């Protein structure tokens, strides 16, 4: 084969290959065109579908828009109707508010009128109450003044010998004063009752002055509690006598002398917890009242008082010292030696008060040991009698007749002036104070009153040396310089009841009108002519 043939063949082969490639490319292009046509047809179908859907949506949207416009028109109509209703409601609310304000204004005016009327009513009631209160006060003061006047008239009638009328006047004085809550302890009324009740009793058994009256039936340290288990009393005298008085139902049934020895000068006694009686003699002896009596000599000196301060032993008060006495061992020891002589001593609370003649007050323990001096001194006063008060305070009777109310530090709170000379004995029941003196008077003091004036319960012919107040508060026992023991009523209510029991008649109409007044309704007081 020639070279040209070879080249021709090569050229034909190349051409054929090119043709094949071109056919393949064309075939692929055709295939791709078919695929594109199918895709385009599919997309066209989709677009047509979408167009249809869009048209459908447009139609639906148009319908919805038309419906919306219709709803808008309806809403607008309703809104306009609502606006109209709102305007109507606002007008009605405004009208209601106006009416409410008018009603509120009317209510306020009504309440003002009611309050004014109520205020006027209360003012009228207050004025009426004030008038009634003033009238009641005036009536009360008038009746209390009438009570005092009747008490004074009773005294005048009693001194003139007309004791029956005096008793009627005394009872009427008590009756009006008690009815109108007055002070039945005031002197005019108390003295009238005391004179007319005829309850005083006396016994002249001792030979010399009765120096102390002591209850038995309970230890003496309990007597301040108000226990009324009084079974009897003991009386001591300067003649060395100790007498036992049986006391039942407010009556003394018998008297028995336990000791009668003029070698002793008994000034004070105490009852030990074992109910043994120990008596102190001025000349320096302690005597145990047994059978036979036991005598315990004391150091030389002058002895004033025996105190039982709940410490299990007695405290002996001498003129210059305090001693302790053990009842079990009979041991006597010096407790306190002051730098000045002792005028008196007494117990209040858990303290022993020792009064010195220079005005100082020493406070000692229940064992008699010195603790301190009080913050205040009783300058110019010599204490001769003592009575405890609640809270450690005390009452001190003095040689000049003045009675001092002091706090627990010795500061003078009040002075009671009435006695003319030495106060010898003081006792107390609640706010009532009883005092005896060498001026021969037994006095009553009402500590509740702002201005304390004493009522003279009794003027005795002899010096008063000792007192004992019964636990029931109805009677007081009084011992005097001549050895006479007296039982004296001190309860106004009890005395009034006793007077009424003895009344033999009532006031006559003339007496009632003269002494009390015809404007006061007549009352019957005598149990002989009326019921109790």
**Beta-strand content:** 25-35%
Number of strands: 28
Strand order of the largest sheet: 1-28-27-26
Quick one: overall form? elongated
Low-confidence stretches: 219-229
How far do the termini sit from each other? 188 Å
* Cα-atom radius of gyration: 58 Å
The helix/strand class is alpha+beta
Q: Please name the CATH topology of the domain at 299-373.
A: Thrombin, subunit H
Q: Give the averaged pLDDT, no decimals.
A: 87
Query: Could you give a short account of the major beta sheet?
Result: 4 strands, antiparallel
What's the CATH architecture name of the domain at 299-373? Answer: Beta Barrel
Put simply, the count of helices is 5
Give the helix proportion (percent range). Answer: 25-40%
Return the CATH class of the domain at 299-373. Mainly Beta
Descriptive tags:
elongated; four-stranded antiparallel β-sheet; alpha+beta; 532 residues; 5 helices; 38% helix; Thrombin, subunit H; 28 strands
Describe this structure in words.
The structure is a single chain. By secondary structure, the chain is α+β, with helices and mostly antiparallel strands. Among the domains are: 230-297; 299-373, Thrombin, subunit H (Beta Barrel). 38% of the residues lie in helices and 30% in strands. It has five helices and 28 strands. It has a four-stranded antiparallel β-sheet. Strands 2-3-4-5 form a four-stranded antiparallel β-sheet, with no helix packed on it. Strand 6 (266-271) and strand 7 form a beta hairpin. The radius of gyration is 58 Å and the shape is elongated.
């Amino acid at each position: 084969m020639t070279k040209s043939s070879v080249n021709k063949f090569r050229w034909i082969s190349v051409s054929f290959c090119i043709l094949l490639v071109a056919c393949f490319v064309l075939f692929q292009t055709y295939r791709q065109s078919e695929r594109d046509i199918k895709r385009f047809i599919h997309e066209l179908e989709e677009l047509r579908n979408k167009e249809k859907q869009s048209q459908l949506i447009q139609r639906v949207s148009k319908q919805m828009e038309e419906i919306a416009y219709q709803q808008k028109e309806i809403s607008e109509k309703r809104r306009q109707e609502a606006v109209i209703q709102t305007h109507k409601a606002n007008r009605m609310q405004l009208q209601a508010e106006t009416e409410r304000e008018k009603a509120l204004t009317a209510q306020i005016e009504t309440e003002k009128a009611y309050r004014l009327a109520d205020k006027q009513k209360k003012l009228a009631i207050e004025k009426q109450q004030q008038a009634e209160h003033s009238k009641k006060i005036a009536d009360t003061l008038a009746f209390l003044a009438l009570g005092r006047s009747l008490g004074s008239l009773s005294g005048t009638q009693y001194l003139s010998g007309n004791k029956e009328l005096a008793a009627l006047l005394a009872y009427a004085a008590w009756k009006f004063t008690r009815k109108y809550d007055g002070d039945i302890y005031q002197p005019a009324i108390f003295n009238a009752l005391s004179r007319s009740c005829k309850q005083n009793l006396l016994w002249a058994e001792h030979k010399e002055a009765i120096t102390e009256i002591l209850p038995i039936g309970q230890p003496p340290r309990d007597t301040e509690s108000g226990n009324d288990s009084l079974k009897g009393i003991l009386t001591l005298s300067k003649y060395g006598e100790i007498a036992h008085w049986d006391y039942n139902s407010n009556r003394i049934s018998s008297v028995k002398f336990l000791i009668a020895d003029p070698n002793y000068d008994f000034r004070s006694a105490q009852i030990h917890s074992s109910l043994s009686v120990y008596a102190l003699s001025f000349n320096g002896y302690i005597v145990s009242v047994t059978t036979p009596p036991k005598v315990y000599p004391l150091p030389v000196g002058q002895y004033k008082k025996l105190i039982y301060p709940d410490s299990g032993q007695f405290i002996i008060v001498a003129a210059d010292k305090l001693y302790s006495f053990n009842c079990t061992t009979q041991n006597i020891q010096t407790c306190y030696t002051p730098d000045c002589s002792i005028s008196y001593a007494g117990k209040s609370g858990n303290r022993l008060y020792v009064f010195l003649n220079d005005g100082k007050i020493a406070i000692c323990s229940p064992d008699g040991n010195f603790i301190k001096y009080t913050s205040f001194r009783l300058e110019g006063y010599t204490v001769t009698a003592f009575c405890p008060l609640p809270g450690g305070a005390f009452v001190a009777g003095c040689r000049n007749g003045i009675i001092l109310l002091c706090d627990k530090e010795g500061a003078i709170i009040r002075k009671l002036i009435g006695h003319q000379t030495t106060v010898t004995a003081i006792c107390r029941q609640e706010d009532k104070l009883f005092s005896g003196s060498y001026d021969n008077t037994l006095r009553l003091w009402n500590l509740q009153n702002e201005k304390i004036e004493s009522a003279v319960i009794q003027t005795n012919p002899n010096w008063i040396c000792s007192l004992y107040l019964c636990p029931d508060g109805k009677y007081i026992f009084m011992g005097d310089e001549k050895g006479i023991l007296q039982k004296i009523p001190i309860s106004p209510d009890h005395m009034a009841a006793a007077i009424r029991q003895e009344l033999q008649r009532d006031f006559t109409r003339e007496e009632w009108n003269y002494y009390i007044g015809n404007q006061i309704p007549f009352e019957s007081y005598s149990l002989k002519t009326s019921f109790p």
